[in-house]
């Protein structure tokens, strides 16, 4: 499906997101940055407060360590949830009628679980790709390739 004029494009991953707007039409995509944000990637010692916990066993020797919480993944998931909340706010104030989402698999999975029904209704394209560090021209090329009918 072609990307209509004034469509919103969300390009996101676990630490960066961009909202782009198509100022072109369905035949000529012209993306312009509307908003962008990036979170700081914290080091382990800045996130963790302690060593992994242990539990006692009723048999055998030793004390196994509990699985450690993946704080980086939690932060990335929260970032995607925040992006879904922003999309909800924009959809409810009728900021866009068509939406394309470009995100890597994990981010896309979290986003899909969190999307409001009004946002879901407006999705015209979803791409499972990491594009946050690519120039806008590469994102436009990707969208043009996806919008083209199969040969």
Q: What's the CATH H-level homologous superfamily?
A: eRF1 domain 2
Tally of contiguous helical segments: 5
Tell me the structural class: alpha/beta
Strand content: 15-25%
Major sheet attributes: 5 strands, mixed
What does this entry show, briefly?
By secondary structure, the chain is an alpha/beta fold. The protein has helices spanning 44-47, 71-92, 105-114, 117-122, 136-147; strands at 8-12, 16-22, 31-38, 99-103, 123-128.
Keywords:
Nucleotidyltransferase, domain 5, 5-stranded mixed β-sheet, 151 residues, single chain, globular, alpha/beta, 5 strands
What features would you describe in this structure?
- The chain is an alpha/beta fold and 151 residues long.
- It has one domain (8-38, 70-147): Nucleotidyltransferase, domain 5 (2-Layer Sandwich), CATH 3.30.420.
- The protein has helices at residues 44-47, 71-92, 105-114, 117-122, 136-147; strands at 8-12, 16-22, 31-38, 99-103, 123-128.
- It is globular, with a radius of gyration of 20 Å.
